[in-house]
Amino acid sequence: MSKSHKRSLIYTNPFLYRLMMFALYGREYFDRFAKIGFFVCDSSSVVELCCGFGDFYTYGLKNKQVDYSGVDLSPDFVDYGLKKGIKITEGDVNSFNFPRSDYYIMISSLYHFHPNPEIIIKKMLAAAVKSVIIVEPVKNLLNSRHKIISRLALLLTNEGEGKNNFRFTDGSLSQLMEAHFKKNIVKIAETKNGKEKIYILKPEIKT
Ligand SMILES: C[S@@+](CC[C@H](N)C(=O)[O-])C[C@H]1O[C@@H](n2cnc3c(N)ncnc32)[C@H](O)[C@@H]1O
Questions:
Q1: In testing the pocket of ligand 1, which one of 50, 134, 141 has its CB within 8 Å of the most ligand atoms?
Q2: Which of 62, 69, 129, 164 matches a 20 to 30 Å C-alpha distance to 46?
Q3: What is the pLDDT of residues 113-140, one digit of tens each?
Q4: Global confidence as pTM
Q5: Residues 133, 198: contact at Cβ < 8 Å?
Q6: What's the structural domain count of the chain?
Q7: Does residue 100 lie within any of the structural domains?
């Protein structure tokens, strides 16, 4: 069976995906991209891993004259992004050839790399010049009291590599960051109501 057959429906249809994110986040789905974009300097280069169809570029970076490129596993998301004129490549970031870039960013996708998410962050840090930005949900929607919310969140579990019900909490994300990246952390922020944590990491100085 091909990856696209195994992928959950939500990752094959940009309209359904946006609808679901809007159900989970409301207006904040769009507003948070502007907040994250605030950490990116004008006229810099940006690589976004697991970029979906490029909504971070559209709502967070478009007016910053950045040299943006995204990569995502979902061919449907990539096609949709390309049609909107956004530079996105189809690919698995586990086998991605990390080019040098001022910023490396990953939004709401680190849980896909459980149980060894530090591997992907280390690769980002090795290729970044200015910062690595990790934005990850920490309020576990899978355990929401509201059945509709937990059911919707469950639909986001299969990106094509099999089911993964793992989600970060504030505690487990902070544990990961402290254990592997303590010396890289320059700032920790959050999106509205603490739904997601934003970690700004500095790459090691390259000589
Ligand atoms: C929850 S969505 C987040 C999309 C986007 N970052 C956003 O915030 O709207 C997770 C994304 O990760 C992508 N993805 C999951 N595993 C991946 C992998 N190994 N390589 C590339 N993309 C992957 C999925 O296709 C999906 O678009």
A1: 50
A2: 164
A3: 999 999 999 999 999 999 999 999 998 6
A4: 0.91
A5: yes
A6: 1
A7: yes
